[in-house]
Amino acid sequence: MSSEMARMPDAQAQAERRSAEMWAEDTASKAMGMALVEVGPGRAVMTMRVREVMVNGHGTLHGGLTFAFADSVFAFAANSYDYQAVGVQCDIVYHAPGRLGDLLVGTGTEVTRAGRSGLYDVAVRREDGTLIASFRGTSRIVMPRGG
């Protein structure tokens, strides 16, 4: 077994531990009805049901709430290692509206990580697979875990 394969279970356990620690303190994501479905090193999957209080004057999910959902997915993916990272730049492209009752699924994946920076992509989709938004975030390590 390669040394990288031997470290994989430890990396997964670390990602799960870090996400549990973050989730315990994340009142914003919980208040928006998000659920943390899956995490791993450099990745996260979350869901959010579009509720009536999230719909704007156009009858669609408010874009800022779409962004907040994608940002939470990004945060869990970027903080799946043994350090604290914050977003320093994030962009979003809206492809289709979210609608009342939709279950949104956000999937975050690490594109690259080097030094103190990381780059992550998040796809926000309806449960049927329709792409709602594409989000790209750059993270910056601000301190080691426990620092």
Molecular structure report:
- By secondary structure, this protein is of the alpha+beta class.
- It is built from three helices and six strands, in the order ααββαββββ.
- The chain has helices at residues 3-25, 27-31, 63-78, and strands at 34-40, 43-49, 83-94, 103-114, 117-126, 131-144.
- A six-stranded antiparallel beta sheet has the order 1-2-4-5-6-3.
- The termini are far apart.
Provide a compact summary of the structure:
This protein is α+β, with helices and mostly antiparallel strands and 147 residues long. The protein has three helices and six strands; from the N terminus they run ααββαββββ. The longest helix is centred in the first third of the chain and has 23 residues, at 3-25.
Number of helical elements: 3
Largest sheet: 6 strands, antiparallel
Oligomer: single chain
The counted number of beta strands is 6
| Helix residue percentage | 25-40%
N- and C-termini, Cα separation: 33 Å
Mean pLDDT, nearest integer?
93
Strand content: 35-45%
Q: Supply Rg.
A: 16 Å
Q: Which runs of at least 5 residues are low in confidence (pLDDT < 50)?
A: 1-6
Overall, the morphology is: globular
Strands of the largest sheet, in order across it?
A: 1-2-4-5-6-3
Class based on secondary structure composition and strand pairing: alpha+beta
Topology as a string of helices (H) and strands (E)? HHEEHEEEE
Write the layout of secondary structure elements.
Elements: H1 3-25, H2 27-31, E1 34-40, E2 43-49, H3 63-78, E3 83-94, E4 103-114, E5 117-126, E6 131-144
Antiparallel strand pairs: 1-2, 2-4, 3-6, 4-5, 5-6
